[in-house]
Amino acid sequence: MPARNHNQWKANPPLKGGEWIDSRIYSDPEIYEQELEDIFKKVWVPICHESELPDPYDFRTATIAREPVVVARGPDNVVRAFLNVCPHRGMMIERRPSGSFEEAAPSGNPKRMTCMFHGWQYDMKGNCVYISREKEGYQDRLCKEDTGLRRLRCEVNFGGFIWVSLDDKVMSLEDWCGDAFKCIRKPLEAEPLEIFHYHKAVIGTNYKLWHDTNSEFYHDFMHYHNRVTGFNDAYFARENTAFKHGHVNVGSFEVQYDEYEGFESRAELSFPGLPPNQWYMVDLFPGMNFNLRGSALRCDIVTPLGPDKVMIEFRGFGLKSDTPEERRTRIDHHNSIWGPFGRNLHEDLIGVAGQGSAMLPGSENRRILHGRHENNLIHDEVGMRHYYDEWGKWMNRLPSDPSQPYMPAEAAE
Ligand code: FES
Ligand SMILES: [Fe+2]
């Protein structure tokens, strides 16, 4: 078949409904805005890990769908989440990424969240506890009880991650993703985890393309290390499992680390209850990933910044009980795969940045193929098909033609 002219290039592929999607869903600004409203404002988002707020008054800030959020540990040790917005005139209250409210700051009282604009103060439960010149300005018309912070749904679960939702009516976190976590729940919850790595990257691509690369393994052809340490019968027998709400697991196998020169088995430091050198992936709709390679856990959290821009926060975890030597080894295991000079992460970033460069807003729409069927095994693209079917339901759009309303894949043929 020669290279195709424009009409041939625009024709639909000889695949079934659900086996390809339209690239507009990665590049259309209107679709992006709707995703923030109809997906990100309605789901559970893991903001950070409890080990990032070890002490009372520790806090961390983030944004969900452009809304600023602060999570803080109270003197009662409970972690709570609030909109990081002052009820007075709408200023963002805390602008640092993380820190502690315990000590006084030039524009903050001790043990308070203080809005530096006009000095209103809030306690760790979000109650307003001080309005400057309250009586002089408001007499008896407005008081502190009327001006508490906006409380957000917040739960700590699945190994100590702090989950927040902007939707008061969101389903329970357990219902949302409990089934998808089953395969690694015991290793994650056997004992407290601790963060040892954090970095973030702003990448010129759509957030869903990052999620795709975490949930399909056909691109292991790009990862030399994965080919050398995998690509045996056990690797090709890894199963993809789909769960309700668009989540997916990529099943485990035993990685042959010592097949790669300079690497060695990670069996000794495997997470509790995990067979040696196993590797599980939990991919959560709409774009969070938990990647357990035996001795180190990686978690990716995406914050979409535009149709063609995403911030990805990468975290690495070990056990809180690690000795200094065990921790060093875990960090080495983590970084040798996922660090800036590791064997894997930068290759994924090159892949998705290349897709992003070719799907900028305004680019002509084209088909993106998700049609590989291999009995739901590792190179089957079932994970992405499952994800985009869910995406279509939340958006009421057909992924293969987003100008049409959602319908099940079979009906779309
Ligand atoms: S905007 Fe916060 S005190 Fe005025
Ligand atoms: Fe990859």
Question: What does the model show?
Answer:
The chain has 413 residues and is of the alpha+beta class. The protein folds into two domains: 45-155, Rieske Iron-sulfur Protein, CATH 2.102.10; 183-412, Naphthalene 1,2-dioxygenase Alpha Subunit, Chain A, domain 1 (Alpha-Beta Complex). It has eleven helices and 19 strands. It has helices spanning 6-10, 24-27, 29-40, 134-138, 173-189, 207-215, 224-229, 233-236, 324-338, 345-357, 382-395, and strands at residues 20-22, 45-49, 58-64, 67-73, 79-83, 98-100, 113-114, 121-122, 128-130, 151-157, 161-165, 193-203, 240-242, 248-250, 279-284, 288-293, 296-306, 309-319, 367-369. The longest helix has 17 residues, at 173-189. It starts with 5 loop residues before the first helix and ends in an 18-residue tail after the last helix. The structure holds FE2/S2 (inorganic) cluster (FES) and fe (ii) ion. The site of fe (ii) ion (FE2) has 5 residues, from loops.
